[in-house]
UniProtKB/TrEMBL annotation:
Pfam families: MOZART1 (PF12554)
Protein name: Mitotic-spindle organizing protein 1
Any single GO BP term: gamma-tubulin complex localization
Location(s), subcellular: Cytoplasm, Cytoskeleton, Microtubule organizing center, Spindle pole body
Function summary: Required for gamma-tubulin complex recruitment to the microtubule organizing center (MTOC).
Subunit (UniProt): Part of the gamma-tubulin complex.
Main location: cytoplasm
Transmembrane region(s): none
Keywords of the record: Cytoplasm, Cytoskeleton
Listed GO CC annotations: gamma-tubulin ring complex; interphase microtubule organizing center; mitotic spindle pole body; spindle
Family: Belongs to the MOZART1 family.
Organism: Penicillium chrysogenum
Amino acid sequence: MPPKSQEADDKRQAAREVIDILQEISDLLNTNLDRTELSLCVSLIENGVNPDALATVIKDLRKETGSKRVGNAHAVE
């Protein structure tokens, strides 16, 4: 059995790899979510938030703020 610090490092590396993959998917889908936002979304979903409801909230917030970031016209559709 590896030491606890090795296990923690392995878990962090696995989490980074997951976020890397999600970032690639996000880029392909033009969601315009950065790594931090993706991490927060994953965390919310892991804690029971409905993914469809989360997507709706993100779209609504972007509409309210006028989608200030470039290229957000079709984000999270």
